[in-house]
Write a structure and sequence with these properties.
single chain; alpha+beta; four-stranded mixed sheet; 30% helix; UPF0538 protein C2orf76 homolog isoform X1; UPF0538
């Protein structure tokens, strides 16, 4: 009797999932393949690394679930600037800092850099353009993005010395 009830409960919890079948050989160009990889979901999980100081390697990660990839980078920056001061679990120096730029730190299933805070290379491809969408900037599920002050980044890039 107990087993029968458990089976009925379990069968009612199972959801039907339809998975579209895509012939990978039909993807002719790199652009087609890139679009295929981004088709999976419009809302993803993204980790934002708040960088307070490059010299002191002072940063704090925040995980955001349900990020819409079709919003522009500028819209996401506005959202972050409104959300960060409201997070009581962050120390005040992180909540009250002047962040203004986003750069991709790491994408899921790709190689990581040896830099402890942020890579100083590939700014032209990894720094997100404000007028483009997050999807166009290369953001996908489980991407880690750095949020920092552009002036601090330029000063650190000109003289990359750690203070500790």
């Amino acid at each position: 009797m107990v087993i029968q009830i458990q089976e009925e409960i379990m069968s009612s919890l199972i959801l039907e999932v339809s998975i579209p079948v895509v012939n990978l050989r039909s993807l002719n160009t790199k652009q087609d393949y890139k679009e295929f990889l981004h088709m999976a979901s419009k809302e993803v999980t993204v980790t934002v690394r708040l960088i307070r100081s490059f010299e002191h390697r002072n940063f704090q990660p925040i995980v955001y679930h349900g990020v819409n990839l079709d919003q522009t980078t500028k819209e996401f920056i506005v959202f972050l600037k409104q959300d960060i001061p409201l997070r009581t679990n962050l120390p005040p120096p992180f909540r009250n800092y002047k962040y203004d730029k986003l750069k991709i730190v790491h994408q899921a299933h790709k190689a990581k850099t040896n830099e402890l805070v942020l890579s100083l290379e590939d700014d032209d491809t990894l720094i997100l353009e404000e007028d483009s969408t997050l999807r166009a900037g290369g953001i996908a599920h489980e991407t880690e993005i750095a949020f920092f002050c552009e002036e601090d980044y330029k000063n650190y890039k000109a003289n990359p010395i750690s203070s500790w």
